[in-house]
Amino acid sequence: MSQGKQIYYNNLRKNVNNMHPRLKELAVEAGAYVDGNNLLTGPMDDAKFAELIVRECASVVFKKTGPKSALDVLEHFGVKE
């Protein structure tokens, strides 16, 4: 592995380990895996991860303001119901 790639992956792991616990759960749901205490991105599906984050946000909006606003969030990001 090139030095540039190694630096990228080291920084990525450092940033991922500082993530909010719920984001880590969503990353695992999107295909990341845990090795000891480290969350590694491995074969994680970035598009699936983004979709899960948007759905989580829409869920919070739904609870606070109702279905119309939640659907607006999903529509804005192009996530199908």
Task: Give the structure's gist in a few sentences.
The protein starts with a helix and ends in a 5-residue tail after the last helix.
Question: What this model shows, in words?
Answer:
The chain has 81 residues and is mostly helical. Helices cover 67% and strands 7% of the residues. It is built from four helices and two strands; from the N terminus they run ααββαα. It has helices spanning 3-17, 21-29, 46-65, 67-76; strands spanning 33-35, 38-40. It has a two-stranded antiparallel ribbon. Helix 3 runs antiparallel to helix 4 (67-76). The chain is elongated. It starts with a helix and ends in a 5-residue tail after the last helix. 6% of the residues are buried. The model has no long low-confidence stretch (mean pLDDT 83).
SSE topology sketch:
Elements: H1 3-17, H2 21-29, E1 33-35, E2 38-40, H3 46-65, H4 67-76
Antiparallel strand pairs: 1-2
Helix pairs in contact: 3-4
